[in-house]
Each structure stands twice: as C-alpha cells, then as structure tokens.
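Two folds, back to back.
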Amino acid sequence: MMLLYYYFYVHMDQNKTIDKKTILYIAILLITAAFTRFWHLDYQSLWLDEMHTMLFADPTISWKDYWSIIGADVHPPLHYTLLKAIFSTIGYNSLLARIPSAIAGVLSVWAIFLLGREILNNKLGLIAALITTVNYYNIYFSQEARNYMLAFLFVTLSFLFFIRLLKTLKLSHSIFYGIYTLLLLYCHYYAVFVILSQVVIGILFFLAEEKEQRAVFIKRFLLSAVIVVVGFLPWVPFLSSVTEVKSSWIPLAPDSFMFEYFNEYFGYANLLMPILFIALVAYVLSVYNNGASFKNVKKDPLTLSFIVFTLWIIISYLLPYLRSLTAVPMLYGRYTMIVLPALIIAIAYGLLLIKNSAARIITVIVFVLLSVVDIGMVKAYYTRVSKSQFREMVGYVCANNPDNLPIIDEVSYIQQQYYFKKNGAAPNIIPGSKNDLVDSILTPGTSLYNTKAFWIIGGHHDNQLSDDKRHLLETNYVRVSNAEYYDAWAELYLSKSDTGLGITYILPQDFDSGNGTYTPGTDVVALWGGNIKFKPKAMPEGKYRAIVCARGTIAKDAYPTLDIFLNGQKMARMYTTPGRTIATFDWNNTTGSNATFSIAHTNDDAWPAKNEDRNAFIYYIMLKRLN
C-alpha cells in the first residue's frame, strides 16, 4: 500500500488541484480496471510466447546462466528479470506470471489520466482513463505474461514527464522523464523509436523556447539523456541479438497497416469504429481551425497535443516500417502498443470537444456500453477459450503416458517444456517435421523404424497429419487417442503388433451392444442413453489401472454422468466435460478372467427448444498392467 501511495503521490502535479468528484470517478475507474484485469486471470492456458517467458524466467536457472540466456533474446530484460525475481521468491506458476501485467494495466489507467490531465484538465484525463479501462487491447495484454503492458505504462509515464519538462523545465521532471524512458527502453526495443520522436519534438520546442531559457532547456534534457545512456550502457553488449537478426517470422506489413492496427487496438469492434472515427476527425479539425501561434504552443493544449501525438505516432510507425522494407520485417501489431496511449487521448480530446454536454455524456456512455457488450458478449472474453490450450493438452498427455513414450512435437517442443515440468514429467521429445518422422517410423533401416508406440502433439497453428499420411500410418498403427483442444491437439499411436508395454486398449470398434452407435472409421462410440457394452477382453492375472476417456454434450446446464462397470461391478463414476475427460481406477484381476466393460448414462436428458441433447462419447478404455 505504501508503494502504491508513493506511486500516486509523486506523479500528481501539485500545481493542479483535483476535486473530490474527480477523485471519486478515478477511484471507480481504478476499481473497475482491477476487476476487469484480475478476473479470470488464469482462465486461459499460457500460449507459445508466454511459455517462452516461463522458460526464460525459470527460477531453477542460475542468475549467471540467466544473463547469458536472456542476452540472446530479441526482447530486453526488464520483464523477464521481474518475473524471475518473483518466481525465485514467491512461486513459479502462470498466475504469478500474469500478475505484473495486470498491475501494470491498472496503473496505466492512472497514468493516462495524469497524461490527459497534464495536457488539458481533469475531464480529458477522466475520459482517457475511461477509454483505457474498457479498451480491449489494454485488458487483453494486462492478462498476458509478456512485456507489452509494461511498455504501455512506461511510454505513458515517459510522455507525461516529457510534456511536464517541456512546460516547466523543472529538475525533478527531467529526472523522472529519464527514469521512465530508461525503464521503457529496458522493456521494449521499440522505445528507440519513441525516443527519436521525443528528440524531434524536443528540437521543435527548443526552437519555440525563449532565448533566455534555452540554456536551461539543454541542461535539463541533457540530464535526462545522461540517465538513459548511462543506465542502458550495461546492456549495450547484448544488443547484437537484435541488430544481427537477418530473418524473421514476422510477415511484411501491408500498406494499410495503420488502419489494420487501429482496428486491432479496439478488438475489431465494428460498432465502435464510427465513434472513434468521428472523435479523431473532430480532434484534427479543431486543431486545423485553432490557428494558434507556434511560439505560444506550450500554452495551447490542442496544438501541443497534436504536435506530440502526431510525431509520436508517425515516427514510431515509420521507422520500423522502413527497416522492414530495407532489412528485415519487424513491424507487428502488438509491438506498436507504444502508440496506443496517444490515440486514446486524441480520441478522448475529440469526445471532449463535443460542445453540448448532454450529447458528450451520451456519446461516452454509448462508447462504454458498446465496449462492454463487445468484450463481454460478442467476444465472450472471460468465458470463451481464445488461447492455445497447451496446459490442457500437455496435462492430458502426461496423464496418459505412464511409460514415457516418445513424443513427436514439431513446432513448440521447447516452449511446452514448462507444462511438462509442471506435470512432473521428463518427456522423450523427438523434434522435427512430423511428416518426415512418420516416414522414418514406417521405413525399414531407420532409427525410428517400427517404434512400438508414440505420441504426435501440436499447437500454435500446427496442423495435424494429412489424411493420406495418417491412412498410411494406420496400416501398421492404431490411433487410440485423438484429443483436440483449442489450437492444440494430441494423438497416441499404438503398433498393431505386440507392444510389450503391458497396455491393452478397448477401442470403439470393440463396441458390442446397447444404446450406442459406432461408425466404422471413426474413433468414438456415441452413448445416447441407457448403457453400452464392449466385447470381452482376455486379461492375464495381475493388477491393472484402467483409464476411461470420454466427453459429453450439454443439456439444461449439465453434462453426462457415467457409471463404469467391469464384469458387472461398478468401479467408478465419471463426470464428463465438453473436452476429453479421464476417469481412472485400479483393478486387481486375481482370476485371469475376461474383462467385460459396460458404461451407463445416469442422467440422460434433452432440451429440444434449445437443440440440446445430453449425450456421451467414449473414445477408449486403456488397461495398463502395474505388475
């Protein structure tokens, strides 16, 4: 609390008053921002880049090794180092990894309020803070374990003290401007473009400065420059990782990238676009009609903000775009988050310029309501899976891989090590092209030929095997598992010959009778209601672990509940979900008798009016011998 108090206090310009009503409004916005950024913070699985973060900040890596590893990355070290410190002292998990971004998201609402307030008044600050509170991009990256939200916060604070310094030439503003610009530089290398835009802006304001103040102007900005340069010197030797990049996964940005990114910032919410467009047009036209003298620009909030925002945005876009054309593509939507605060305040200024107060309030309320509807209902942001489900997929593989079978993983084999480690697994990963590796498994004389059993997993836009390749593979192997998640999947293949692994599968094609359906060529038995029975399997004496894999469909807010029977005796109860669900139980076969499984649907129901039918789908029963 003391740190937060200090943060809010030192950033408040004591020369400007803040009334009780404004304090109440900003408090409400901060509480709302905290709710929207912390709610369901760990609902989504970590996606590829976030898992990359977890590996870099792994607390088991020594600090000495950490610096050599982090120095080779294309991002500066601040965010990684912050997380490593947290992981080393508090804990190592995805929730803690996202908390710094969520805090930065809340603080960014306060920071942008101060920036808007510095440019004009409390009203502009409040409208800008309100837009930020419900901004899709801000919320999204506040819930991601990456450095972008810190960049948003620090670029806002950098410009806050940059503008204060331009206006007042105070020593304290020079120091804070230097500190926040240095933090921004340690947070994202796009800070270089921000600094260059500030240099251009500074030169223009220097020319407009009174001659007797120019010496002070130079001294103050030189002090800020010294703070940035001296503070960043220790990291200069590591910059080769960025400057020597010759190729990139980033595609060349289209000519219309500015419009594309603008839509991206606001979640491609078409209903918001008319309001945003009208606000920006109103802002630009007001500047055009303002007719202010450049000599008095520091006293003219409209012209000052337009000069700062225009150069801030154009230079931060133009320079990476030119480098993308001449060297290597580097312009990407989320990297340009550093210009979003300028756009938000420009939009807020345009809304504030609506002269009729009732019309202005209604427009702002409509904007907020449309934003809430878009995020909460259209996108279902807090309840709909939207990130690759590596967490669920890896958890499924670990739960069904007791013999540590080889795993073919083409795209994300490095990053997924985090979730394997969290599941206490040391996987036998085979990296490389899945198609080439499958060919090797099927080709006599290769090191992988006739592998008895193996997984193929993928995620992050990694395609599964083609139908032709799968059909070829299934001449010698049975695909006993095909778990599909959002942008992630896992397949388990078992040789049709004796595996020697002590594993017996009861598959959909072993369906015998009951109220179910099996279609040849598919990997599931549909259980419509009542019960189904599978053909008996001869099992030697011994202790076994049975794993039943199934999923269900919803009706009246409930999924199927299944009772699992073995030789007529109830062994387990299973509560299905929309994804593949596992039920496990142990069985001691003391007689060497056949194993006859049946499954009963205990809560069959339907809701025809909503086209809902509560059905279950059985994928397999795996019997693993334990002794």
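---
second:
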Amino acid sequence: MSSEAKQSGCIIVQGDLTILLETDHPLYEEARDVLLGFAEMVKSPEYIHTYKLTQLSLWNAASAGLSPERVIEELRRFSKYEPPKIVVSRILDWGKRYGRVKLLIEDGRFILRCDDMYVAAELANTKAVAKYLIKRLDAVSFEADAAYRGHIKQALILAEYPAEDLAGYRKAAPLAFDLVSIALSGQPFALRPYQSEAAELFHANGEAHGGHGVVVLPCGAGKTMVGMAIMAKLQTETLVLTTAITAARQWIAELLDKTTLSRGQIGEYSGDKKEIRPITISTYQILAASEKHRELINSREWGLIVYDEVHTLPAPVFRMTAELQSRRRLGLTATLIREDGLQNDVFTLIGPKRCDVPWKVLEKSGWIAKAECFELRVPLAQSARMDYAVADKRGKFRIAAENPNKLPALQRLLKEHAGRHILVIGLYISQLTEIAELLNAPLITGKTKNSARDDLYRRFRDGEFPVIIVSKVANYAIDLPDANVAIETSGTFGSRQEEAQRLGRILRPKPGENRAWFYTLVTSDTVEEGFAAKRQLFLAEQGYPYSVVN
C-alpha cells in the first residue's frame, strides 16, 4: 500500500493496541462495523473514537473464523499508516492461541490435545490444568476428566490457551416440532434473513464445533425467534433460563404462537408453578436460590439450554454451567458487556460469539426503529447544592440523580411527545414514586405482583395509559412494541449494558415512521456527567451519537 493510499484511511493503529477512528471520515461506518468484529470500544468523544485490541476480542474473532492475518489485513485497509510491528506481533500471537488446544472424544475417552509438544509440556506443568489430567497418551495428548470439562476450559483460558471444544454432546431426549408459517394470532410468520443466518451459524450443520456460543442482536431484533429456530433445528428437549417470570411467560406465549408445540409440552418452573415438561422455561433467580431448584438441570435429558440475556448470569448459574458442557448451550444478548469483567466466563462456559449484527445495519433495513438519543443537562437545584458539596462520591451521585430540577424537564418532554407511548425509567424508587404521583401514572417496581405487572403492561400496549413509570424491572425482556419514547431519570452508575437495554425497550419496529426517541436526564457540573459518558460508550460504538442539550 502506498504512503498516499494510507493517508486516505480513517484509523490510526497505536503501539499500545488502541485504534483511533475518525468519525467524520467517509469510511467511518464501514470501518466501525469491521472493528466491531475484533476490537472493543474504550471511549467515544465527538470526533475520534478509541478501540482496543484484547485477547478476548481476538479469540472471539478467531472462533468466528476471522484469522489473525485477516485482522491485520483489515487494519491495513483502513489505516492511515502501517500498523506498528508490535501490534502485528500481538495479533498473531494472541489470535493463534485460540484452538492450539482442542478437547475431543476418542474411543469413549475425553482427550485434551495440543498442537505441539511444547504446549503440552507447558500445560503438564501448569497446576491449574494438570490437576484435571488423568494420564499422558503421547507427546501432545492427555486423557482428562470429562466431569471437569468446564473447569478445564476455565483453567486453559487463564493459561492463555482458549480451547476449541470439539468433544460434542451427550445423547438428548428428542422432541419433534416445527415453526409455523401462520401464527396462532393469524399473522404470517417467517424468520428474517439475519435470524436464519444466526441460527445456521450456531447450529453449524450439527458439527461438533457448533452447538455452543452466543448470538448478539439488538433489543427488538427478535432474539427469541433465533432461539426458537435453533430449537426447531435440534428437535430436542430444551431448558430456557430467563431474567424474570415476565420474560419466561413471553417465551411461552411466543412458542405457542409460532410453533406446533402444545401447552402441555411447555412448562413454567417458577415461584408460582413447578412444571417440568419437554420445553421448560425458568428463571435465573430460581436456579440461584437453592440446590433443590438446580436439580431441575438433571431432571431430564435436555439437548439444549438457552440462556436469555446471558450477560446477566449470576455466579451460581456460572458454577452450574461449568458442569453442563456436554449439553448444547445458547446465549442470547444485546451486549456481551459485563461490568464485573466476567466476559471470559461467558466465552469459556457458554461459548464464543457466533453472530453479532451491528445495530445500525438492522436499523437501515427497517428491522428495528430509527432512534435518536439525547442527553439533557439540567442544573442542580439550589436547595441541594450544599448537601452535594459535602457528600461522598456515592452520595453525590444519588443527589445528582434525584435532582428536583429534572421534574420540569421531564414534564416538557412529555408535552413535546404527547400522543406517543412513553416509558419513564429510573433507578431510585423514591424519585419514581414522586414522578408517578405528579403524573398520575402507574408505577411498576420489583414489588409489583406479576399479575398486576402484566395487566399494566397490557393496558399500556392497548393505549389506556400513555405513560408508565418503570424501575430496573424494565431493563430486560419486556415486550412493549408500541413504546417509542424512553426518558431515563436515573441509572445504575456507569452501566453500559443497562443503557443499551433501556434504549432497546423502544427499538421494536413500528408501523409508519418507525422512529424512537431516547432521553437521559443528567445533572450538569456533577459526577453524573462522568457516569453518563461511560453509560453511553456501547451505544456510541453501535453508531448512536447523543445530542447534548442544556
């Protein structure tokens, strides 16, 4: 590539593994979508976005078939300058580590095979790995304890040798059913092209390298449909784990509406019911609550376990999943971001990222609503300034989040969007209660009974309530297709995945203009500004710039 051609690029690759991307360059969108495949966003000010190459981002790329050489080729294609040699070296080293160790079943034995004798020697002397090895078979192979398949994979990733798991799956109970072309509701039904592609990538024609992994799609893009498509391909009994009973019942409704399954074949395992059937829908909370409920996992020969909103997995379910490596595992999420840094465990125990469609790609095709994002900065109320001045950082955040001056700003937005379906979302119940009383609007919190919650959501969908107030319970898996305005009054500090989930509540495609508006109210000149900037990083990576309005 000539020096002149490089100068026309839109990225600069730096020796510290960061990548700078110019947002006003003609190649910006193309480069952004390519970078999403092998790099992580760090920050996104107005003109220059920063990405970072990490081991995990390159291992995910390798598992998706994107070789280190191809990553380097793409960097050179978009770069103003030749990437530093140290970066090229790191990409080759990290990227090629994926798959240097393979897990296999041969002659009924669980085998760990390395690609050369030096890796084998290193692992034989790595205590965290060696304790699971039964005996050495040859210069590059070991027989290992199959009961610790997940634990071995965790130990290997700590040793920086992420395993390619080709050990396959144990025989599962069959279950014959099909997707329908006319839903129970009477509406025509067919998978969208990207949904079919996601299902194919996960299934991998039934081969051993498929059957485990994560599908990443925006909220509103139909991740449940992908899950059902995979279930129909596998034709096996399935356990679906969700974030809440509302989400579980939405799965049941969709399965009844769009498949040939009967109600008698679908069970709800929750605080209200304990039905174990060929397709069973449960919640993470139930499984995390006690060992008795976790016995549900061993109650049937499940051929597939679906982890809805996989980025929310609690620690007890991670531990359980380490022992479930002989069953197919599907993770569904809008973002793999975890604020606790446990992305490695998702990669290791559920599987690598199989599909990740950029949000803006689906928006351009009309599959999700076109959203505009705004950060409205509101001055801190005079009455709160002294309390803010003397508070610690956590106290400052809460004072800023509950700033009384947000209420007039909220009322102006409601007036501006009168006639639309509006969600007001927040963290602090005291603030939400005040807003609900001010607007004479229903409030839904974690204490709202499921039956009352479902009824309020139904009445909102029917237009009886133009506005509903919701706490963190609305962060996940709530089907409100007509909601087209979301106003965030407060959030969980700098949680990027929460911001993405909240925008997702209004992204379902809508008839007509297919537009949505997302507002976050931020108290200016306070710590809330910094947290808001961090919350917005993932959405900025997806191409959603925030317009800042004072």
